[in-house]
Amino acid sequence: MSTKKVRSLSRVYDAVLRTHLRRHRQMAFVSGPRQVGKTTTCRAQSAAYLSWDDDSDRRLILMGPTAVARHLGLEVLREQPLVCCFDELHKNPRWKGFLKGLFDTWGERGRFIVTGSSRLDLYRRGGDSLMGRYLLYRMHPLSVGELVRHTAPKRLVERPRRLVERSWAALLEHGGYPEPFLKRDRGFSHQWRRLRSAQLLREDIRELTRIHELAQLEHMGLLLAERSATSLVLSNLATDVQVSVDTARRWVEALASLHFGFLVRPYFRNVAKALRKEPKWYLRDWSGCVDPGARAETLVACHLLKAVEVWQDLGLGDFELRYLRDKQKREVDFLVVRDRKPWFLVEVKQGDASLSPSLAYFQRETGAAHAFQVVVDLAYVDADCFSRHEPVAVPARTFLSQLP
Length: 404
What we know:
Layout: H1 3-8, H2 12-23, E1 27-31, H3 38-44, E2 48-51, H4 55-62, H5 65-72, E3 82-87, H6 95-106, E4 110-115, H7 118-123, E5 134-138, H8 144-148, H9 165-174, H10 178-183, H11 186-208, H12 214-226, E6 230-231, H13 234-241, H14 245-257, E7 261-266, H15 271-276, E8 280-283, H16 292-313, E9 319-325, E10 331-338, E11 341-349, H17 357-366, E12 370-375, E13 392-395, H18 396-401
Parallel strand pairs: 1-4, 1-5, 2-3, 3-4, 7-9, 11-12, 12-13
Antiparallel strand pairs: 6-8, 7-8, 9-10, 10-11
């Protein structure tokens, strides 16, 4: 990837980290998928950078917090705390103890950003001795909202803004990961997706889990790549891969933890009932979807997941992404729940602007304030989707521009 191109691409996370460093003393943990731009973004906000994957940096880190503090010059009086980024530190078996010692002793003289792949988010949960010492920010690929504005969100939804046509087309075809989006070369994007999937399904799985049946797991990954935006029936998937249902469940959870894809569960007020029903599966990279309908739904699913997690990470409320389906097989693709109350419904269509009757039905049943039929092929309209409370067909590029 061209360094010049990557650095010229402003990210919303630049603003998020600047705000964090200005307002908070806690460490900033930045997790997210491989090649989403974590290292580039975090290094841009740091005066010093240490990577566990670098031999000399690793030797220094193993000497302990005091040696690192001396190397960084934290003993020297400064006008502002020194900002240091630690990359892939979770690969150190004692990374939590190291950070706890560094923060407790030098937290007033330094500001620390810790970045890593999905494993950082996974490993921090086990016996979390760092509680209260960090804030977590989950980084996502580029979205329409991020491309039209680069400021940290101060409100839940923004006024719509037009994304230039060539960027919208590139986002649809090449996805939101910075390298293929900037390159905009069909052959390169195909190779990039293939190599990234291979790395996730072989190397990362081997490092993160005790799964040894890598050939079968890779086969499952290929099947799931073809089934984005569909209900995940574990018994059928287990049969296709020739493993038990429990094994299929564990493998899907492992792939989700590595950001290969994610699950959206049905909405029920009874949480136990929701867990028993089939979830829907979505790829984290919509550009890998061949079917136009699946690509459209996955595009919107990824944007909604990003919005929900950004709002949550910035402390703007408690949010969930769900879907709706009843016994009469009425269904709406997505429901965003805000502070445990249904907020808005989203039904995704490629080109059909005639309203689905399920939108009005489920809006009455849930009491959601908004009900949108998001249509990918509709031209941008400079109007606020969230000013409407009755079911309405809206252009995808208008609706998505109002999200983070």
